[in-house]
Amino acid sequence: MGLNDIRPYKQGLSSPAMESYPLAAAGNFVAGNPVRLSLAGFLIECADAPTADNILGISQASGDIDGSILAATIFPNITYPTTGADGFPNTGDMIPVAIPKSETLWVVNADRFSVAGAAFGDVVPTVAHVGQACGIALIAGNFGVELVGVLIGRVHDVLNADGKSVGSEGGTGVAVVFSINAHQGTATGTTVDPA
Question: In 3-state terms, what secondary structure has residue 73?
Fold first, then answer.
């Protein structure tokens, strides 16, 4: 559950929609972690390998209610309306979530990319990975992208250290750009009830 494991890749009109949902009592997650809505309509962290009906989007703020993940001082400029003296968000606080749209792209660092799914960083991403189906996984305490398991997205590009495509500019892949094509808003029979 590393901070900003998954980030929106802002290029052109690909910025995600932003919505806020109430935090569940057991909602321990940080910004950059995939989240979902519970049956009661509260925001919680996704499963280790989220399926389409088990991911709503990517949290844009901490849901770490007790400081077990990160210290409160990491988020000094975020004010939660019902936060107590401890400085952490409380149950019911509204947490912003980046919601995938069809054109939304996301990015992870190469050390959060796996081909085999056993460990991140098992291979340097290359242009050969572009177009492959991918999923999100929690491996060794961090969320990232893998090319095995539950496949809910697709790799769109691999970026070099200058932030340019290795396909057209060359270089070593340091980041992977991908889409989330299936989520709670698209899963058949799934309703998103923020109340």
Answer: helix
| Residue position matching structure tokens 């509204």 | 94
Which tokens in the block code for residue 139?
Answer: 């491996």
Q: Which tokens is 157 given?
A: 């590009």
Query: How far from 8 is each of 34, 128, 194, CA to CA, in Å?
Result: 12, 22, 22
CA nearest neighbour of 190 among 50, 93, 8, 64: 50
Q: Tell me: the pLDDT tens digits for 81-95?
A: 445 555 677 788 888
Tens-digit pLDDT profile for residues 50-80: 888 888 999 988 877 666 655 544 444 444 4
Q: Is 128 helix (H, G, I), strand (E, B) or coil?
A: helix
Contact 158, 165 (CB under 8 A): yes
